[in-house]
Amino acid sequence: MxxxxxxxxxxxxxxxxxxxxxxTRARASCLTLPHGPVQLPMFMPVATQASLxxxxxxxxxxxxxxxxxxxxxxxxxKPGQEVLAAIGGAHKLQGWQHNLLTDSGGYELVLGAFxxxxxxxxxxxxxxxxxxxxxxxxxxxxxxxxxxxxxxxDVLVTTSPGCSSHARGYAAKHTQNLFCIIQGGxxxxxxxxxxxxxxxxxxPGIAIGGxxxxxxxxxxxxxxATCTELLPELKPRxxxxxxxxxxxxxxxxxxxxxxxxxxxxxxxxFGNAVTKYGVLNVKNAKFGVDFGPIEEGCGCICxxxxxxxxxxxxxxxxxxxxxxxxxxHLLTLHNVWYQLNLMREVRDAIIADRYPAFIRQFFAxxxxxxxxxxxxxxxALHGVGVDLLEDET
Amino acid sequence: MxxxxxQPALEHGLAARVGRLAAANRTPIDTPTFVGVTSRGAIPHxxxxxxSKHTDIRVAYMALEDFTEKSSKRKSPAIFSQPEDVCRPLHxxxxxxxxxxxxLAPRRTPAVVAPNGNGPKHISVLTSTGFERLxxxxxxxxxxxxxxxxxxxxxDLTFSSATPGAKRQVFMVQRTQEWLxxxxxxxxxxxxxxxxxxxxxxxxxxxxYPMQWKYLxxxxxxxxxxxxxxxxxxxxxxxxxxxxxxxxxxxxLSMDSPESPQQILQQVRLxxxxxxxxxxxxxxxxxxxxxxxxxxxxxxxxxxxxxxxxMSSEEHQVSVTPFMEGCGCYACTxxxxxxxxxxxxxxxxxxxTLLQIHNHHVMSExxxxxxxxxxxxxxxxxxxxxxxxxxxxxxxxxxxxPRARGYHFKPEAxxxxxxxxxxxxxxxxxxPDQVAAAEAxxxxxxxxxxxxxxxxxxxxADTAALxxxxxxxxxxx
Lengths: 393, 477
Description:
The structure holds 2 protein chains of 2 kinds.
Chain A: E1 6-10, E2 13-20, E3 27-33, E4 36-40, E5 42-44, H1 57-62, E6 67-70, H2 72-77, H3 81-87, H4 90-94, E7 99-102, H5 106-113, H6 120-129, H7 134-144, E8 148-150, H8 165-168, E9 177-182, H9 188-201, E10 205-208, H10 217-230, E11 237-239, H11 245-253, E12 258-260, H12 263-269, E13 272-275, E14 278-281, H13 314-320, H14 325-351, H15 355-366, H16 375-383
Parallel strand pairs in A: 5-12, 6-7, 7-8, 8-9, 9-10, 10-11, 11-12
Antiparallel strand pairs in A: 1-2, 2-3, 3-4, 13-14
Chain B: E1 2-7, E2 18-22, E3 29-31, E4 33-34, E5 36-37, H1 48-54, E6 59-63, H2 89-94, E7 101-105, E8 122-127, E9 130-135, H3 136-146, E10 150-152, H4 166-186, H5 189-196, E11 199-204, H6 209-223, E12 229-232, E13 252-254, H7 261-270, E14 274-275, H8 279-285, E15 288-290, E16 308-310, H9 330-334, H10 337-345, H11 350-375, H12 379-389, H13 434-443, H14 447-450, H15 463-469
Parallel strand pairs in B: 4-14, 5-6, 6-7, 7-10, 10-11, 11-12, 12-13, 13-14
Antiparallel strand pairs in B: 1-2, 2-3, 8-9, 15-16
């Protein structure tokens, strides 16, 4: 266990910096939350409706997950605030002993409102049904009892100062942490302004939001790099909605610590397996007669041989994709394990101060041909001192 | 395989009995017991780790028709193409742990009725790509290749709820007998079956004894020594089994699907040893948690008790009690009714998983206590108490069932649709609850839609994801 370099605490959170990459802005740290410590950088799987898509909380725990997301908007609809209050919060609802993070719920309303297929009168109905005010969002997240809750941000009016008095005056200070969210779209000036504002609010952690909305990857990287430069070192930095492995590895190099995304679990239900050599569409006919594990050498319970491993083959997963829920569950187990393990490897590499070499190997695995390396990744990594094309010495 | 009757039935095998079934390299199993019924090689909603850890399922029923769909992409079904060093291919393909026994039969249970019926030389089976003909020879070849522990010999069955006409019954007996003779021609007991550890259960037909006594004679006289068990499609045939003493000591697998624990007790009383009943899977899919024990609790004053609880009901919304009072299963010790109600209401797949864990546990306990009661001679008395204590039917589940598939059922003309449309018109007649419709329209896309199994009105992925997933791309191209 690496020693702590520096730490900072607030009422319900301690941030211990464990290692800094000597080349990039990557850092390894330990975050202690009300339901136990978590190791950063980390990926957080999304259990939208208080259930991680078919996995039992025990199975999720076995992947190594100690912090997962719930969605405030969905829990506000089902089971609803009254029920949550009566049960005593979302941890008790889903039998989860570890940490929970909840978003503000604003993003889902925007998603719904801008759905081109949603008739206007239906939107009115919906808005009537769930008017999400700042106050309501915080009150809901209080009832949920998440270890980390997010301020209600305004995704559309990107200069919103956010983090209103309600948010700052939230109730459960000693058992919950409120993270502010930096907005500002792709406008770096706005982002800088927002960073300044948010740092001044001195929340226990800071999120970078408004990304992962289909923007160009190069723009995304510029925003993350701009923000991390301005953020205090001893606070966790959470980039919302990021989950592709390349994005995680690059974002860590840019100085981000926490990520969440539904992609790994959703794509599992579409029949896709995330592996270090890229995403496999196991629905493809060739996998029907492929009797190897989902990913050779993977340590997840599906792929592992012996030692409690299940000996699942690609052929069996293929056999039941879109036919029996078990195949979705198996791929979900694998993909969640892949994402968490990727971040464990990232962390080990940072602590051993060999992160640039790790990044090069990671991209070499994904792209056998260096000519296929994505421009955006090369550019972003170049900005933090890593030349992807450099040969290992 | 050996079957020892530990607690012999009193007269001619016509009573409840306790036995122990053991095959080489497998842990023995005590009977009466029930088997896990798989769909396409998987116990619905349960991954193999959950099965090992949280259930006591020791036998898995599998149907060959679940593995033999035709595909333009390959010559023969994938299950037959496994590497040669795999020692039990059916186990390996389905990731079934080696401690579990597999039973292979041609058809699922319940089986979809084949509109064209069987022919003199084939059974009609339903694969996920349509009906196919399965000849006795093909069945035998498949058995040799995939090596189940137990195989149910082919029978000419209609699977229809109506009793077949007298003429049809004559055919059924004739064909089943011919197929059994042919079966042992293809699979020699000494050369093939025994060395491979494959055990044969001969079918008894769901028709009256006078119609099939000759077939039973044939079984006793010609095949008895090669048989390891009997498969009953109607448990009532046991009344007449005493006329065939050579068959009495064979283990009896019931495919005569009981629909309630009372019917199970009734079949146990007739001398059934092993139950392959889709009952548990059905109950779980209906969102009902089993809530009975054997013997029943000391009678209270609250009247006849229900056999199960509809977990979708709003009355459980804030109930932090176990699904069933005093139950020791994973689901009851780690979770509560409120969570299950939420999962059913939000159509989260975990709901069915937890129900399967609980319901299989209740069933295992039910059978464990049946064995104890037979052993100590209290079975009849306790079975009587059970019948008095509980209602005779399960409550109806009000939850949304998992999406039914073509290999689960074939709708008959005029039946209402089994799968509810994920969305519908807002205006006009029969307008559904607007909020529910909004959810169905994709704002909260969950359940089957999120399972990637149907297309919600609003795509469940953004454009980038669609491009990545290969939007509208044909499989394998």
